[in-house]
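Notes, p. 3: input format for complexes.
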Amino acid sequence: MRVLLTGGAGYIGSHTALELLGRGHQVVVLDDFSNSSPEATRRVGELAGQEVPLVRADLTDPEATRAALEGIDFDAVVHFAGLKAVGESVAQPTRYYRTNIDSTLVLLDLMRERGVTKLVFSSSATVYGDPRYVPQDEAHPVGQALTNPYGWSKAMIEQIITDTATAWPELEAVLLRYFNPVGAHPSGRIGEDPSGIPNNLMPFIAQVAVGKRAELSVFGDHYDTPDGTGVRDYIHVMDLAAGHVAALEHAAPGVTAYNLGSGTGSSVFDVIRAFEAASGVAVPYAVVAPRPGDVANVVANPEKANRELNWATTLTLEDACRDSWAWQSQNPNGYAAN
Ligand code: NAD
Ligand code: WQD
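Output follows (338 residues plus nicotinamide-adenine-dinucleotide):
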């Protein structure tokens, strides 16, 4: 398959590009580099032993996107492009809705014009909102009482893709609901490079361990969980990347949603301990007030993906900490010159 990766220079896109190349597929990366660097794609090419075609375009701009992709053929798309910071989405709702929704509308029109029918979309466990039960399967209600524009944009895009499939029955769309992606390629050459202060737990811990930040704030230790801290389903980004390849290879007409998670929950203290063991570096922390909007426990039921995509996680939280540390310690300033 020749696969267009929108947002393919980003964290998950760069690992998926490498995985697709390793399985004999071809890739084209389209990105506007609003939250990434072309260096990530260059390194993917270095690891894969082949140059990766890179197209710079803002996917919310239909004319610019059409022009940039002229003469470039592809028969499937993985749509990663979008903005993803939950807190920022509360402060800048119109920017989030415009980027996430418009980019999807432009992409769907372009796919239809070109007769490209295979689509894998980066959705999120955030579409389930406050869990009614744990572990969550795909039958859990979606798009109810979500707490931020980022989450709403993902639920809306799932609906837009579903409505498009009704009007265009040839569309083969897969909605991948990621739980908490962590880790890096084991080489340490590519990884997560957040701009500014990391919002997510693992990159924050990695920056404390490497000495860029003094201590981690643990957001609450009075949740109804075994040690009182929040529990999440952390999934190694290389397992996540393999899930995209499986989704592309199993896509069928209509729209199908899959959870991509491990089925195992880990607390904030579990992650701190695993990172300390993997890195050999102490991670100082202080317990502070809970973060508004956080929930106690989010864990995937991944059985549908296990069964239908013949996919399951193979890597552990310890593997993710080891690989995240390899990336962070070799690239303390991310893709910027060290
Ligand atoms: P990322 O920010 O590293 O990657 C997104 C990429 O999209 C970036 O390279 C950015 O430059 C690009 N982009 C943004 N707006 C664009 C536009 N208008 N035109 C072209 N490119 C544009 O984020 P990521 O962690 O790799 O996430 C990828 C996708 O997965 C996102 O859609 C995100 O919402 C979703 N997701 C991420 C997580 C997570 O925790 N990382 C969890 C669930 C879902
Ligand atoms: C994990 C745990 C925090 C930072 C978010 C989005 C979700 C998805 C993944 C895109 C929680 C605790 C965190 C810190 C902490 N993204 N924590 N100190 O909130 O599960 O999910 O990213 O779709 O939509 O909401 O991930 O990594 O921010 O937090 O104690 O500095 O770590 O309270 O229990 P979260 P996270």
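The chain has a mean pLDDT of 98.
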